[in-house]
Amino acid sequence: ETGVTQSPTHLIKTRGQQVTLRCSSQSGHNTVSWYQQALGQGPQFIFQYYREEENGRGNFPPRFSGLQFPNYSSELNVNALELDDSALYLCASSLVAGAGEQYFGPGTRLTVT
Amino acid sequence: AQKITQTQPGMFVQEKEAVTLDCTYDTSDPSYGLFWYKQPSSGEMIFLIYQGSYDQQNATEGRYSLNFQKARKSANLVISASQLGDSAMYFCAMRGLIQGAQKLVFGQGTRLTINP
């Protein structure tokens, strides 16, 4: 059984640029959630994708957007990067959008300079 | 809205001792789930243990147990016989509902350091 994978591991971008982060869900999982974890904080929910549609969103501006593909992998896109976007971005997959337990990937560490 | 509070920013414990990490929660939902995750320096969130609000018994998973006191709204993690590899950040989380999506609401975390 393949676990959740994320790419890239680390990324450095300049303020104002755009970035795309990728996540492959665990085999058999159809739901992907994205979280942002700032340094020294707990993760914050960004949004969730279920069967290729956004299925709930946290308190993040529209410049945070996402996609889910037919194979249930997912992308997180962030436009017009700001310094405060520097964080660890975690992807979690689950079997169902409701009560399923979420399994996390290793994360992508984004630094915005 | 759901909220998780972890009041211990850091804990230092001698190897082989037991340790209790505190977690209190707030929710108006009658049905909820509580989780503990371990996050080593590598960044990955590792699931440790789960407690459902209607579970009659406290959850246990190997050296991990969850001391669930519903009336006090607390869900403390107990690690028995601590090991050097237990040094990490520990997060308590609650499953919450937003626009039909089940999200996890995390506390601020506790950094546990096991001394040899």
Describe the structure.
The complex is a heterodimer of chains A (113) and B (116). By secondary structure, chain A is mainly β. Chain A is built from no helices and 11 strands. Chain A has strands spanning 5-7, 10-13, 19-24, 31-37, 44-50, 53-57, 64-68, 74-78, 87-94, 103-104, 108-112. In chain A, the strands form 2 sheets. In chain A, strands 2, 4, 5, 6, 9, 10 and 11 form a 7-stranded mixed sheet that branches. A 4-stranded antiparallel sheet of chain A has the order 1-3-8-7, with no helix packed on it. Chain B is mostly beta strands and 116 residues long. Chain B is 0% helix and 56% strand. Chain B is built from no helices and 12 strands. Chain B has strands at 3-5, 10-14, 19-21, 24-26, 33-39, 46-52, 60-61, 64-69, 74-79, 88-98, 101-106, 110-115. In chain B, the strands form 3 sheets. In chain B, strands 2, 5, 6, 10, 11 and 12 form a 6-stranded mixed sheet that branches. Chain B is globular, with a radius of gyration of 14 Å. The termini of chain B are far apart. Classes of the chains: A mainly beta (113), B mainly beta (116).
What's the SSE pattern of chain A? EEEEEEEEEEE
Unreliable residue runs of chain B: none
* Sequence of secondary-structure elements of chain B: EEEEEEEEEEEE
* Strands of chain A, count: 11
| Alpha-carbon Rg of chain A, integer | 13 Å
| β-sheet strand percentage of chain A | over 45%
Query: Terminal Cα separation of chain A, in Å?
Result: 38 Å
Mean pLDDT of chain B: 93
> Mean pLDDT across all residues of chain A, rounded?
92
Structural class of chain B: mainly beta
Give the oligomer, counting copies of the same chain as homo and different chains as hetero. Answer: heterodimer
Q: Please give the share of residues in helix of chain B.
A: under 10%
Distance between the termini of chain B: 41 Å
Give the biggest sheet of chain A: 7 strands, mixed
Number of helices of chain B: 0
User: Could you give a short account of the major beta sheet of chain B?
Assistant: 6 strands, mixed
Largest inter-chain contact set: A-B, 30 and 25 residues
What is the global morphology of chain B? globular
As a percent range, the share of helical residues of chain A equals: under 10%
